[in-house]
Amino acid sequence: MIFIWAFIIGGLICVIGQIMFDVFKLTPAHTLTALVVAGAVVSGLGWYEPLVNFAGAGATVPITSFGNSLVHGAMAEAQVHGLIGVITGMFEVTSSGISAAIVFGVIGAILFKPKG
């Protein structure tokens, strides 16, 4: 059953993004930013963790999870280091994913020739 809920919740997040493209005519950058901010707000309200517990990968794979990671890291480090922890916590939690994206992007650019 967890697979069905993951599919439904992940699909709903993607449908929201598609509606932002088609109905509201938002650019990809605006849609991406809105979904990250939405994930951060939902996480700040304490609702994202229950969603992850319910939907698993359906909630951790979409871009809204990045906003959740930012808030989660900032809040955890703020408890330990105060105000400076808010900034360092965001980088600490998300640095491995961002680093991997950069490294694999460079490898992909080296190995493959774009069609132009």
UniProtKB/TrEMBL annotation:
<dbReference type="Pfam" id="PF03862">
    <property type="entry name" value="SpoVAC_SpoVAEB"/>
</dbReference>
<feature type="transmembrane region" description="Helical">
    <location>
        <begin position="6"/>
        <end position="24"/>
    </location>
</feature>
<feature type="transmembrane region" description="Helical">
    <location>
        <begin position="31"/>
        <end position="48"/>
    </location>
</feature>
<protein>
    <submittedName>
        <fullName>Stage V sporulation protein AE</fullName>
    </submittedName>
</protein>
<keyword id="KW-0472">Membrane</keyword>
<dbReference type="InterPro" id="IPR005562">
    <property type="entry name" value="SpoVA"/>
</dbReference>
<feature type="transmembrane region" description="Helical">
    <location>
        <begin position="93"/>
        <end position="112"/>
    </location>
</feature>
<dbReference type="InterPro" id="IPR014204">
    <property type="entry name" value="Spore_V_AE"/>
</dbReference>
<keyword id="KW-0812">Transmembrane</keyword>
<keyword id="KW-1133">Transmembrane helix</keyword>
